[in-house]
């Protein structure tokens, strides 16, 4: 989050920066703490406002997957692996 923005505003901004995607935040979904590396994540459920997205300046690629097609072995961040497994259950 940046100074002066809420967690939801930060999530919306990060989604734009990472995937050039405009989203509408629906609700909080999960809160993950990773004390070993001094990080905490607040994950939100959101929907795309438009069906357009592409890699942002901080991403090499982005893609949508059906839940059964998520390539869990290829994910870069363990926090996202945990979150996506929560979504599937």
From TrEMBL:
Domain Nudix hydrolase: 1-88
Protein name (database record): Nudix hydrolase domain-containing protein
PROSITE patterns, A to Z: NUDIX (PS51462)
PANTHER family: NUDIX HYDROLASE 23, NUDIX HYDROLASE 23, CHLOROPLASTIC
């Amino acid at each position: 989050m940046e100074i002066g923005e809420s967690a939801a505003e930060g999530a919306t901004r990060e989604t734009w920066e990472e995937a050039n995607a405009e989203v509408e935040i629906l609700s909080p979904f999960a809160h993950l703490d990773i004390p070993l590396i001094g990080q905490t994540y607040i994950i939100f459920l959101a929907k795309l406002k438009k069906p357009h997205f592409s890699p942002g300046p901080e991403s090499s690629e982005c893609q949508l997957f059906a839940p059964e097609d998520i390539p869990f072995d290829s994910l870069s961040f363990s926090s996202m692996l945990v979150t996506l497994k929560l979504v599937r259950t």
